[in-house]
# Entry
Amino acid sequence: MHLLGLAALIACPLLGDESGVRWYKGNTHTHTLWSDGNDFPETAADWYKKNGYHFLVLSDHNVLQRGERWKDVTKHERENQVVSKHLKRWGEGKLALRKEGSKTLAKLMTLEEIRRDFEEEGKFIMIEGFELTTAAGMIEKKREFPVHSNAVNVDKLFKPQAKSTVEELLRHQADLVEAYAGKERDRVFWHVNHPNFHYAITAETLAEAKGVDGVEIYNTSTNCKNLGDKHVPGIERMWDLANTIRIKKHGLPPIFGCATDDTHNYHTPDEHYHTGKVLKNAPGLAWVMVRSRSLDADAIAGAMRRGDFYSSTGITLKELAYDPEEGTLSIEVDPKPGRKYVIRFIGSPADVSLEHETPKPFRDWKRVMRPMSGVYADERLGAELRKVEGVKASYRLSGDELYVRAVVSCDAENLPRIDEGLVQRKAWTQPVGWEKRLPKHK
# Structure
């Protein structure tokens, strides 16, 4: 059995000797004072490195951390003492400050400077990227459908333009990524962010979006509606809908699922992580575990684009293997004492019906009409195929599935709390078995 298994590895050579392969923990969605985060980029790097991460992407909105940038930090000092904390942490010589009247301005570190201070070979790296941020639709002179996505492992800024529809905007962003990467597309990972944010993206829209590598199936920032509400399905359900439609109807490979922090706030007291306090936009709640031969940007982004990673909000896997010849997906949890684990295998059959009803758009709190994902009659779409209570399980594909994935949950207490409630401790693997349905995919 090849321990590198996961769906897309069928389409590329297996690595053979697995002795040099290991798991790397990272976050691909992080904000700082370069855009709307509330602390310095070096604070972000410091937090993630100290808390056991191996890589971090600073994904500020439509900007790379390059060139000279002075930031008005007057409000941030008043609200969170960012300058005072910085001076206490690193001393006087690390932060350039100047006064402009009543304002205090700070010179922001570039990614190159952050790399010099924080990167350690084989232990921690910074991967360059940014969040493509714009919106679609024009209602009362405002664009009301935010479509955000992250380009991971890019060294050039390309700015998206607003479009009339969400579908047009996703195609536009895909074209920008494709034009940038060209023949090196395999070294860039592009994921759509928080599809339920402002009810911007439906499952059907996501299903037909070409060029998308990933989608955030869990984002711990505010207003992301990971679990859905009375209007929209949860994002995990949307993920199954989109992938089933992609493979069966559009002949497209599946979208891989990412869990991210979308960090904006670095001033949550540590004790809040163990109480009932709400953690607003805080770090350390959701991440990806990437399997790679080396800790470098090209290797990490390439592995993610192949689907060789899983996502987590608190569960670690000891083993994750897919044997393409046997068609067997195997999972083993790295358990914590006193916790009970459940492993579920989810998938859709090849003969699943895509017949559905599309609910009428609803009017949200802004009085904006929002589209809704379809309601599908076939209960086998994204259904539970097998359930195992325990830390180890496997599923052998019959050959009749469009894809199969696994999700692990547990009964852990003292879960962190975000705006929509408790963060459920889970781990999500990527869909496998789909490659047999798309023989021409490369």
Helices lie at 41-50, 74-80, 82-90, 111-118, 166-181, 203-207, 235-250, 297-306. The chain has a mean pLDDT of 93. The first strand starts at residue 22 and ends at 27.
